[in-house]
Amino acid sequence: MSFVELDLRRLDPGEAPRRGDVAAAVEADSVRLRGPVPALAAVLTALLKAGRTSLVPVAWEPTADKASLSLARDLEIGSGEPRDLTLVRDDHGGVLLHHGRIEAAGNGRRSLSRRLGCQAHHDDIQVADGEITRIDVRPDWRAVDTIGVTVMTLPLRPTRQTSGRALQVASDPARVLRDGVPYLRPVDRWTWYADDRVRWRLQP
């Protein structure tokens, strides 16, 4: 059995590893990763593209940044038995583990002052229709195949929160962050969904 150990602790929390940094995971029988959330996302993305997420157990040693420690608590790292978990995907080839965000593409102003024309549905619920400030998405690790969505219409106003399997967004050009890592270009359509056909195996 081939065991691969990856040390990506040098990455900043909002920095994604290069494809070659995680390429060895694809041929492994098991993986141990040290690094922040984007490093774990990159390993799972590589395994997803190879069709091996359910076959390769991944043990994760998080770094000390806030997002990694929060996800480690949610996943109960260091306790329990190996578990097959939900994989939250997007329609641009990535995965989401802790926090996704859709907001107006940058124009020099503070992010909370920028507005985004947007229509969005969370399953069969329309959660946005008009101008908003941002949409936040988090996998719900207490549930199965579920993501939580929060829509902020205006800063300091009540937000709308929903729970379901899939979020579909059509918008003005938007900036998307996956676990703190900006997507490479603005988009006008985006989908995040908990894929009930695919699981990834966590070695806690």
Please provide a written account of the structure.
By secondary structure, this protein is mainly beta. It has 3 helices and 14 strands. The model has no long low-confidence stretch (mean pLDDT 94).
What's the number of structural domains? Answer: 2
Helix/strand/pairing category? mainly beta
Mean pLDDT: 94
Portion of residues in helices?
A: 10-25%
Stretches where pLDDT is under 50 for at least 5 consecutive residues are none
Order of helices and strands, N to C?
EHEHEHEEEEEEEEEEE
Gyration radius over CA: 17 Å
How far apart are the termini? 19 Å
Shape summary: globular
Largest sheet: 11 strands, antiparallel
> What is the number of beta strands?
14
Strand residues, percent: over 45%
What is the gist of this entry?
The protein has three helices and 14 strands.
Secondary structure layout:
Elements lengths: L2 E5 L11 H4 L7 E6 L1 H13 L8 E5 L3 H10 L7 E8 L4 E2 L3 E5 L11 E7 L2 E8 L1 E6 L7 E6 L7 E5 L1 E13 L2 E2 L4 E16 L2
Key terms for this structure?
three-stranded parallel beta sheet; eleven-stranded antiparallel beta sheet; 13% helix; 2 domains; 204 residues; 46% strand; mainly beta; 3 helices; globular
